[in-house]
């Protein structure tokens, strides 16, 4: 006979009430696991996709950085070669790619067009490996570098009525503002559902440099390391490269669009944690308070038999924790099973929904279950159960031993 | 040396106009091996006095020593230990723990007194109080008389110096009540355990060897019990008053 057994038996005493409390904890824990796994999964996918296209580190001129949201055309890295050389030979850098983004109106055939498109110039590997545009070709093939070819986003192709083989004239501006007409042969049409591809004109880097009158330069250089989460160290060492002196080196963790969101994700996590904590705590508090009030006489008897105040606290604490453990285990099962399913099978949504999004996101989203989330959910349930039981347990300790003698 | 010294014990509840003197300046000596009943009308202070002697409550003034230990200056933890080690309790409404079996209820007393022996000793004691084969029943599977026997076993299993019983037979029919009383007498004779109990019941008084009569919190008579009751009508008159 030990007090653990008594506490455990006490937990089974009012079965409906204990089960209801355990049920609240099951619900809270499961909800927490499901919500957090989705949050981590979707957020992870957004970051994965975002940092794949946007790089782990972005190198621009300080003037460009200052007006980055306006995409200034005249604040460029003029001499790209030493920068690229230094980056590509730097330890920890997986790849580095120069990027040019500018705007142009598109003309196909005789009439001067009034269709606007965002022109993007980069090396082929950036388009194929990082943006993955070639896999989204719905017509034709990817462009050959130096061949005066271009690929159009599906929406632009539709608006201009351009067909494969047509000459497309792009009317842009140079970095100092003069008119800059250029042309290319349409060899492919890409479609993803996102404006990032559907409203773009893809050209090789040389063509973009020519159109901006920026030979040998680029607007920015994107850099990738091994792991986006460990970017801080790479960022520090890249920023210290002499070839990059005078340039602005920023990491995805601090730059828009992700920089500002990381704190918000932590806040969402905290709110979720607080919610389950509140649910579990309140449920356990309520149950244990009723138990203590019901068992006043019995606590008196135990105290008469020699139980100390601390013993009475322990007895109720253990009872509350037993219910919470039961609920926590149930909650882990109820949370992990659907999450595992959703992390394998994912959730698909129609491509049309993506048209409204500012960033490219896969059309199938997956939850991401981690042992940290499960442990956090379980610990939160138990911890708050302890807090929730503490008050009733302390109240039990104030029950005087002579309560045993009172008739009830 | 006396087992229990009660010196000028007063217990007052409440304050001002609502003040109740439940026990007034009671001085008594209880010797080891006594079988003593506190009698008196309702509200005369029997339970209150037993509470003080049983260290369930602290007197407003006066002192009590049990088995040579003065309890006046003791804190809650030390008092709990005195109760656990030296005092067994039997209550009017049995007060067994409903989720535990008879044997577990008895064993619990050993656990709380930090004594060993466990189930074997619990079953042995249950057999001694006449509950062979009922060790694994829960309280709700036992009659009132049987439950009170479990309570007797629970009070005695740790071999306390003193057993305090507040109206142990009040919830039982007279046959079961007599059996419990005979059992207590038997254990008193056999093990020399001191019993201190309260009662309203003249039949119970017959079994007592010493009767302390209380009235309005004061001891108004202290005399030998048993046969003496039939010749002395004073006690009964006091009870009925
Ligand atoms: N906790 C308390 N608070 C206030 N007054 C109390 C308390 N306990 C007892 N009393 C009062 O003290 C007096 C003695 O009560 P006590 O219970 O000791 O009497 P008793 O002799 O045991 O009565 P009964 O035979 O009815 O059990 C009564 O007037 C009672 O109302
Ligand atoms: Mg009483």
Descriptive tags:
heterodimer; A: alpha+beta; six-stranded mixed barrel; two-stranded antiparallel ribbon; elongated; B: alpha/beta; Rossmann fold; six-stranded mixed β-sheet; four-stranded antiparallel β-sheet; 10 strands; globular; disordered C terminus; binds adenosine-5'-triphosphate
List the helices and strands and how they pair.
The complex is a heterodimer of chains A (408) and B (241).
Chain A: H1 3-11, H2 15-54, E1 57-60, H3 62-66, H4 80-88, E2 95-108, E3 115-122, H5 124-131, E4 137-140, E5 149-153, H6 154-160, E6 167-173, E7 179-190, H7 195-198, E8 200-204, H8 205-211, E9 220-224, H9 231-239, E10 248-251, H10 259-294, H11 296-304, H12 309-345, E11 347-348, E12 364-365, H13 371-397
Parallel strand pairs in A: 3-8, 5-7
Antiparallel strand pairs in A: 1-9, 1-10, 2-3, 2-6, 2-9, 4-7, 5-8, 6-7, 11-12
Chain B: E1 4-13, E2 20-30, E3 35-39, H1 46-53, E4 61-66, E5 69-70, H2 76-86, E6 87-90, H3 102-112, H4 118-128, H5 144-156, E7 162-166, H6 174-191, E8 194-199, H7 202-207, E9 210-215, E10 218-224, H8 228-231, H9 234-240
Parallel strand pairs in B: 3-8, 3-9, 6-7, 7-8
Antiparallel strand pairs in B: 1-2, 1-4, 4-5, 9-10
Helix pairs in contact in B: 3-4, 3-5, 4-5, 5-6
The structure holds adenosine-5'-triphosphate (ATP) and magnesium ion.
Brief characterization of the structure:
The complex is a heterodimer of chains A (408) and B (241). Chain A is α+β, with helices and mostly antiparallel strands and 408 residues long.
Structure description:
- The complex is a heterodimer of chains A (408) and B (241).
- Chain A has 408 residues and is of the alpha+beta class.
- Helices cover 51% and strands 18% of the residues of chain A.
- The mean pLDDT of chain A is 86.
- With 241 residues, chain B is α/β, with parallel strands linked by helices.
- Chain B has one domain: 3-Layer(aba) Sandwich (Rossmann fold).
- Helices cover 37% and strands 26% of the residues of chain B.
- Chain B has 9 helices and 10 strands.
- In chain B, the strands form 2 sheets. In chain B, strands 6-7-8-3-9-10 form a 6-stranded mixed β-sheet, with helices on both faces. Chain B has a 4-stranded antiparallel β-sheet with strand order 2-1-4-5, covered by helices on one side.
- The longest helix of chain B is centred in the last third of the chain and has 18 residues, at 174-191.
- The model of chain B is unreliable at 227-241 (pLDDT under 50).
- The chains are: A alpha+beta (408), B alpha/beta (241).
- Chains A and B meet through α1 and α11 of A and α1, α2, α3 and α4 of B.
- Bound molecules: adenosine-5'-triphosphate and magnesium ion (MG).
- Adenosine-5'-triphosphate is lined by residues 13-14, 20, 22, 40, 42-48 of chain B.
